[in-house]
Design goal:
465 residues, alpha+beta, eight-stranded antiparallel barrel, 46% helix, 19% strand, disordered N terminus
């Protein structure tokens, strides 16, 4: 019985083993719990680090995006610096300046200033160089387009196209040419290519100012009409209403009126009675004077043919000069009135005129006589008998009053001045006045005929204003 193991002993042994096992198992369980807690803590730390790294990456990405959006100019400059190794400094500056212009047009002024500064640091006058280059290229491109268009379409085709739009022909030639000039955007084109600057490069305002110098203060409108024959662009410029308006104001002044009564200022200048300023009016007087009887032959009485000329020159400012001389126009009669200050003051009468409709009132006086009369008027009169002498002729102050009427002859408009009145007011040294009126005999007072003189408008003193 003693040799048989007891169940309790086994159980006790098992229990002991179990107790021992349980102790080991308890230890192992405690270790597993510790491992689980450490692994969980390490995973938590890893997750937090990963989260922080993700946040940092996101921050860096956002920061990089902000940098790209704020300063793309610096990045573009750095990227393009490697491409500028084989490029000249001027081309680099041009590229940077164009980039700056692009940013400025996009509204990014900060980036544009950055590019502008860098371009100016390389080449200080890069803006002017770039402007000259682009304008030259634009002109060359425009000339090629205009020439090609001109080769494809002639002036007749342009006019025919306009005539199709206005079949009733109510549109004028000026309006048609204005359309053509507006299409080509230039006054004229050079016939052949040239290196020098052509007049077509000038803007319309400068050409109009040049035409004012052509007209000048002497109102040489004939030269303006000659300029209109150059090309269609000059034709349009020479029909500028402002030029013709100033010319009408210089002639008629306050009594000019409105252009609507004539249609335009040019039509008023052409159709309204006026004086010509690019020449002088010439009147040739011829009559027969009987001579004295011969001493030896009482029946012989010679006859003399007397010829002399009257010259009248008018100026736009109201001044007029008159010369009476036996010299014909080719012998120097016209050249004596070439300047405002006459060469022969004793023979030339100077005065003023007034234009009213078709009537011209002229008042003339000798300059030396006027000066002498003013000097004698300021000198007190001596009452002594010894000093009472007849006044010499040079102390007589004579004022000549002429009344003329503007007339036309055949196709020549306003080229004739007809006498309607002539009187002389004489004032002696004592202040007494005598008015003498002359009978206008046709052979003694023939009409004045206008003759153009080229030398009168050889130069311009001031532009039309």
């Amino acid at each position: 019985m003693s040799n048989v193991p007891s169940a309790s002993g086994c159980e006790s042994g098992n229990n002991g083993n179990g107790g021992g096992g349980s102790g080991v198992a308890g230890e192992s369980l405690d270790g597993e719990d510790q491992e689980d807690s450490s692994s969980s803590s390490s995973s938590f730390d890893h997750n937090s680090e990963k989260k922080e790294s993700d946040e940092l990456a996101n921050f860096r990405a956002q920061w990089q995006r902000e940098l790209k959006s704020v300063s793309p100019a610096r990045k573009t400059t750095k990227e393009n610096d490697s491409n500028f190794e084989d490029v000249t400094v001027e081309e680099k500056a041009k590229y940077l300046f164009v980039k700056g212009a692009e940013y400025e047009q996009a509204g990014k002024l900060y980036e544009a200033i950055h590019f502008y500064k860098k371009a100016v640091q390389m080449v200080p006058d890069i803006e002017f160089r770039l402007y000259e280059e682009t304008s030259k290229q634009a002109r060359q491109t425009h000339d090629v387009e205009v020439i090609s268009e001109h080769n494809l379409r002639t002036d007749d085709e342009y006019i025919n196209e306009d005539s199709e739009d206005d079949c009733d022909n109510r549109i004028s030639l000026l309006a048609r040419l204005q359309r053509i000039v507006n299409r080509t955007h230039c006054v004229c084109q050079p016939k052949d290519q040239q290196k020098s600057t052509h007049i077509s490069e000038l803007p319309m305002e400068i050409i109009l100012y040049i035409l004012r110098w052509v007209v000048s203060s002497e109102l040489d409108l004939r030269s303006l009409e000659m300029c209109s024959r150059v090309c269609r662009g000059f034709y349009v410029c020479s029909r500028d209403q402002e030029i013709w308006r100033l010319a009408c104001l210089r002639i008629w002044g306050l009594h000019c009126g409105e252009s609507s009564t004539f249609g335009s200022w040019r039509e008023m200048y052409i159709g309204r009675p006026r004086l010509h300023f690019n020449g002088c009016y010439i009147s040739k007087t011829t009559y027969i004077r009987q001579g004295e009887n011969s001493f030896q032959d009482q029946f012989y009485r010679p006859c003399h043919i007397v010829e002399y000329y009257r010259y009248l020159r008018f100026f736009p400012d109201g001044k007029v000069m008159m010369l009476t001389t036996p010299d014909d126009p080719y012998s120097g009669g016209v050249s004596r009135l070439g300047s405002r200050v006459p060469r022969h003051q004793e023979a030339t009468l100077v005065g003023h005129y007034r234009l009213t409709d078709q009537r011209v009132a002229v008042a003339l006086q000798r300059q030396d006589a006027a000066a002498t009369a003013s000097a004698s008027a300021s000198t007190p009169v001596n009452t002594n008998r010894r000093s009472r002498r007849p006044a010499p002729n040079n102390l007589h102050n004579q004022t000549f009053h002429l009344e003329l009427q503007i007339a036309s002859y055949r196709s020549q408009v306003h080229n004739q001045l007809i006498w309607t009145g002539y009187s002389v007011l004489t004032r002696n040294w004592a202040g007494q006045e005598t008015n003498t009126s002359f009978e206008l005999v046709p052979n003694r007072f023939p009409p004045f005929w206008f003759s153009r003189v080229k030398s009168y408008n050889a130069k311009s003193e001031s532009p039309l204003s």
